């Protein structure tokens, strides 16, 4: 009897264990599935797009043209299909196939029987194929980045010249056939530069003068040190965060790529030993895609978190989930998108802004989405305002009314009226920009029309800044040309105001005046990524513009403007060695080597698979001006976003800095590296902590050092940075 009961007991226990184990494993599997939901979603988009005919990354796009060519029933359709196939192969990076196809049209087919328009199209296609193939051979190689700058230095001209010379011959034929083709004329000048024959061998009637054709003062040039630093990588357009992720004071680098199947990269700064690739160990290699990334600290633990934006320019194909990654403080990251309530939003986006708009001590954010109207006249993908409530994000757009049902490209927080709460500037492409004034009662109102700051019509990158050190926030809004014709016209002095740069100077009374002409910034650039920072330590913020638009023919230099004491901006692109021809997207500034000047990281590359380029780490060559570095630690707002710093020198000159991550496309370091020109003694530092009415003052601070300032602590500490040692 006892044995039978014992057997039943054992059997019951085994069944119970099996059932409970099954339930446990099921729940555990469910949790794992939930945790991987966002990653699974992103992975599926990667595979779907890669195996599609998507014009950017779809590997099947050439199959469409091959089918058309096979079914072509006359000479014209055959020619048209070959041009389409040649372009498709070029976009996919199949350079030799593309060359073979276009040379077949030029040499084997009856090119002479084509009408004039078809001949022009053929020659334009051939020129781009040769130019891009030559670039791939000469520039997209270790050490090749310096070869593709404008104006090209004869010391760094193309070594492989076969396709460069073919491009030159095609462009000469194209211009004879189509003398008014401005793009062909521009490309002719750039090809001559690549060969080292600019300007001497350019027909004087075709010559375009590139500003800053000056190779003196070589000590001013920034040097690309990506290879020796251990961060060499070729990728497409994407974002960058250049900041200190482990709180040891040394800015690290995280990048993303628009390519939906490319992994994020994480490079840990090891000081003199360069950067260490921790992409796999950190978990970031599991995160795919991301046209842009932005830094934040959503949980106020003092460690930089990451928000990834996906799907930009892709409309319905861009319905991808954006991801929020928590910095665990141990050089790893966790995807908390679902946990914080952001997994239900799959809108094409490439910009967001993070700030405490309701002054409750935690960081909220605005998601800038590319809104459009569907066939039923319904709005798709409206932008959203999310309130941070105990670490979860609640969409409050509907009752707070900062709606922006427009094609949003950039968004920024800033207290333009100095009333103690954050206002919101929204940059829209092909529609009016907006400035949402924070009324302080959980309501916003768009005041851009009455303040006359709605332009440029075709806007892209934007930011709040104090370019003239008068204590008031000004607004920068870049124009964006989907092409390069207007940018070329701008070099020739013909400016289209709908696409030009705009700087709105804050008059100090809640109004603005557009000042781009006064500041010599009334220029047109196809600005994608851009950022600002004081690169020569004179105390005034300079501008670096990354240029380009998706198609292959976007061959135009990135541009650097030096701020001349807040009075005007001077194009010093080539003097500083920053005139890269390849498309520039995410741009960020940080003092990675802690020598007191800002260095630059630029995420390069375009949209097509063939349009990848090497990312660039530009080391600042240094200057004679003085500086002060400040590492702020707030109380409720640990990374001190929105805090204002005034540096008052012994000569009463004041230099201002606001703690933020810079512009919309590239996150600069929250550590403040502030140039103070020839100031040899800081009489006083004033810290206006965000959401704290008390102004903290620190007197008599020595120059040319990094210091730690804690909120409302009377003293400061000099920081002796050590790799891996956490700053508390």
Give a verbal description of the structure:
Helix 3 packs antiparallel against helix 4 (75-92) and helix 6 runs antiparallel to helix 7 (162-177). The longest helix has 34 residues, at 2-35. This protein has a four-stranded antiparallel sheet. It has 13 helices and 40 strands. The protein is α+β, with helices and mostly antiparallel strands and 728 residues long. Residues 1-34 have low confidence and may be disordered.
The major sheet is characterized as: 4 strands, antiparallel
Radius of gyration: 27 Å
- Given helix and strand content, the structural type is alpha+beta
Helix percent reads 10-25%
Parts with pLDDT < 50 across at least 5 consecutive residues: 1-34
- Summed over residues and divided by their number, the pLDDT gives a mean of 91
* Helix count, DSSP H or I runs of 4 or more residues: 13
Q: Which range does the strand content fall in?
A: 25-35%
Strand line-up of the largest beta sheet: 1-32-30-29
Count of β-strands = 40
First CA to last CA: what distance?
Answer: 69 Å
Label the overall shape: globular
Give descriptors for this structure.
728 residues; alpha+beta; 40 strands
Summed up:
By secondary structure, the protein is an alpha+beta fold.
């Amino acid at each position: 009897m006892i044995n039978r009961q014992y057997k039943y007991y054992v059997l019951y226990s085994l069944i119970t264990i099996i059932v409970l184990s099954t339930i446990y494993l099921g729940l555990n599997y469910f949790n794992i599935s939930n945790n991987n939901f966002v990653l699974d979603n992103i992975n599926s988009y990667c595979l779907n797009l890669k195996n599609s005919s998507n014009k950017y990354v779809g590997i099947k796009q050439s199959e469409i043209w091959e089918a058309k060519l096979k079914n072509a029933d006359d000479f014209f359709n055959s020619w048209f299909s070959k041009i389409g196939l040649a372009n498709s192969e070029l976009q996919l990076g199949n350079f030799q196939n593309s060359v073979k196809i276009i040379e077949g049209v030029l040499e084997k087919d009856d090119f002479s029987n084509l009408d004039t328009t078809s001949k022009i199209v053929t020659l334009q296609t051939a020129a781009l194929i040769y130019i891009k193939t030559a670039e791939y051979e000469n520039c997209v190689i270790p050490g090749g980045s310096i070869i593709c700058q404008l104006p090209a230095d004869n010391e760094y001209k193309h070594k492989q010249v076969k396709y460069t010379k073919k491009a030159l011959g095609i462009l000469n034929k194209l211009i004879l056939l189509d003398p008014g083709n401005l793009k062909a004329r521009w490309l002719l000048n750039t090809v001559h530069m690549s060969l080292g024959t600019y300007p001497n061998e350019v027909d004087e009637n075709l010559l375009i003068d590139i500003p800053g054709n000056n190779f003196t003062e070589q000590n001013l040039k920034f040097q690309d040190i990506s290879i020796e630093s251990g961060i060499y990588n070729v990728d497409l357009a994407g974002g960058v965060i250049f900041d200190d992720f482990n709180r040891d004071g040394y800015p690290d680098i995280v990048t993303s790529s628009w390519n939906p199947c490319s992994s994020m990269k994480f490079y840990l700064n090891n000081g003199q030993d360069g950067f260490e690739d921790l992409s796999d160990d950190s978990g970031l290699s599991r995160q795919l895609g991301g046209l842009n990334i932005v830094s934040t600290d959503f949980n106020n633990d003092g460690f930089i978190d990451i928000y990834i934006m996906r799907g930009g320019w892709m409309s319905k194909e861009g319905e991808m989930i954006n991801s929020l990654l928590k910095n665990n403080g141990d050089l790893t990251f966790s995807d908390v998108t679902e946990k914080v309530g952001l997994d239900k939003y799959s809108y094409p986006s490439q910009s967001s802004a993070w700030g405490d708009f309701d002054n409750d001590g935690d960081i909220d954010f605005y998601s800038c989405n590319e809104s459009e109207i569907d066939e039923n006249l319904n709005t798709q993908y409206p932008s959203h305002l999310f309130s941070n409530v105990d670490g979860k994000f609640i969409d409050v757009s509907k009752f707070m009314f900062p709606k922006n049902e427009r094609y949003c490209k950039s968004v920024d927080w800033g207290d333009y009226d100095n009333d103690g709460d954050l206002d919101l500037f929204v940059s829209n492409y092909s529609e009016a920009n907006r400035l949402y004034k924070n009324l302080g009662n959980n309501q916003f109102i768009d005041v851009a029309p009455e303040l006359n700051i709605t332009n440029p019509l075709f806007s892209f990158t934007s930011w709040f800044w104090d370019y003239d050190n008068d204590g008031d926030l000004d607004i920068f809004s870049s124009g964006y040309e989907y092409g390069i014709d207007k940018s070329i016209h701008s070099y020739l002095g013909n400016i289209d105001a709908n696409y030009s740069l705009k700087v709105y100077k804050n008059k100090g009374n809640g109004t603005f005046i557009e000042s781009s002409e006064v500041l010599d910034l009334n220029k047109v650039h196809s600005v994608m990524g851009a950022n600002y920072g004081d690169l020569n330590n004179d105390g005034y913020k300079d501008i670096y513009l990354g240029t380009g638009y998706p198609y292959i023919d976007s061959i135009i230099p990135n541009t650097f403007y030096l701020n001349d004491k807040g009075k005007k901006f001077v194009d010093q692109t080539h003097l500083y060695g920053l005139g890269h021809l390849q498309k520039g997207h995410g741009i960020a500034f940080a003092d990675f080597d802690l020598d007191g000047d800002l260095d630059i990281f630029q995420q390069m590359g375009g949209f097509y698979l063939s349009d990848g380029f090497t990312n660039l780490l530009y080391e600042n060559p240094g200057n004679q001006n003085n500086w002060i570095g400040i590492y702020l630690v707030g109380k409720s707002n640990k990374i001190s976003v929105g805090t204002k710093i005034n540096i008052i020198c012994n000569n009463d000159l004041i230099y201002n800095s606001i703690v933020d991550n810079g512009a919309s496309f590239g996150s600069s370091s929250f550590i403040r590296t502030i140039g103070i020109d020839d100031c040899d003694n800081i009489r006083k530092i004033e810290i206006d902590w965000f959401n704290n009415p008390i102004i903290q003052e620190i007197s008599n601070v020595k120059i040319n050092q990094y210091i730690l300032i804690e909120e409302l602590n009377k003293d400061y500490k000099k920081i002796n940075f050590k790799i891996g040692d956490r700053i508390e």
